[in-house]
Each structure stands twice: as structure tokens, then as C-alpha cells.
Design goal:
The chain is built from three helices and eight strands, in the order E-H-E-E-E-H-E-H-E-E-E. It has 130 residues and is an alpha/beta fold. Strands 1-4-3-2 form a four-stranded mixed sheet, with helices on one face. A four-stranded mixed sheet has the order 5-8-7-6. The longest helix is centred in the middle third of the chain and has 12 residues. It is globular and about 45 Å long. The two termini are 27 Å apart.
């Protein structure tokens, strides 16, 4: 068994598509209309185009807003992405205007940072010490 797909709820799929592809560097994998303005919109790592897909899922369900707001208020990331160097990625993303809620912090063998994805979520990036 392996993880094939996971999702983040986004309040605007077009905005999320731009952020996740143009800023974070993911590549669009699927973009299928599913009724109304919603789409089955997935992205993948440019390093693993056949790897796990991230669904940029519309945040239309009534429970989503309360759930995401509570996580953001408590500073809890919804997802974590692995990067080769958190400090370098932090600098790159800051240069692109990304707002961080947590600067890089070393926690034992792991370095993490947390940013706002502009679509209602906090996302953590992490690097494991080598």
C-alpha cells in the first residue's frame, strides 16, 4: 500500500494553481471540470511526476472553514513538504513574497519552517539532517 493522493482545501482553485505551480514549483497533473466552477485539479512534484498527487480541493464543505480556521489560529500546518534545504527554500520563497509564520527552526535532526499558502492553509517545509 502507498499514498497515491492527498489533498489541501483551497478557497480559490485558480489562485491555488498559480501559487502551487508558479511559486512552489509543483507541476499540474490533472485539470478536469467536475461541475460548476470546480475542477479535479492535482499537482505533483517536478522531481517525481509520477509520484503522489496533491489535490487542490475546493473548500466548499461547511466543516472546512471551521477546521482550517482553527488550525491556522493555533499555528498548525495542514501539510508538510520535504525540501533539500529549509533555510535556502525559506530565502527563495521569501524573495517571492511568501509570508512565513515560522522562520526556520532546528528541532533535533529536523529543520522546519511554516508559511501561508494564500489559500487558507499553513504549510510546513522540512529537511531531515543528513
Amino acid at each position: 500500500m502507498k499514498i497515491h493522493l492527498t489533498s489541501v482545501f483551497v478557497d480559490d482553485q485558480a489562485k491555488a494553481e498559480r501559487f502551487y505551480t508558479e511559486v512552489l514549483g509543483f507541476v499540474k497533473k490533472h485539470d478536469v471540470p467536475v461541475g460548476g466552477k470546480d475542477r479535479w485539479l492535482t499537482v505533483v512534484s517536478s522531481e517525481e511526476p509520477e509520484g503522489t498527487e496533491l489535490l487542490l480541493e475546493p473548500a466548499g464543505h461547511p466543516a472546512v472553514t471551521a477546521y482550517r480556521d482553527a488550525l491556522v489560529e493555533d499555528g498548525i500546518p495542514l501539510a508538510q513538504f520535504a525540501v533539500d534545504d529549509v533555510k535556502a527554500e525559506y530565502q527563495r520563497l521569501r524573495g517571492l513574497g511568501v509570508r512565513f509564520t515560522q522562520e526556520p527552526v532546528e528541532m533535533g535532526p529536523v529543520t522546519t519552517a511554516v508559511f501561508d499558502d494564500t489559500c487558507g492553509n499553513l504549510i510546513q517545509i522540512a529537511t531531515e539532517a543528513r
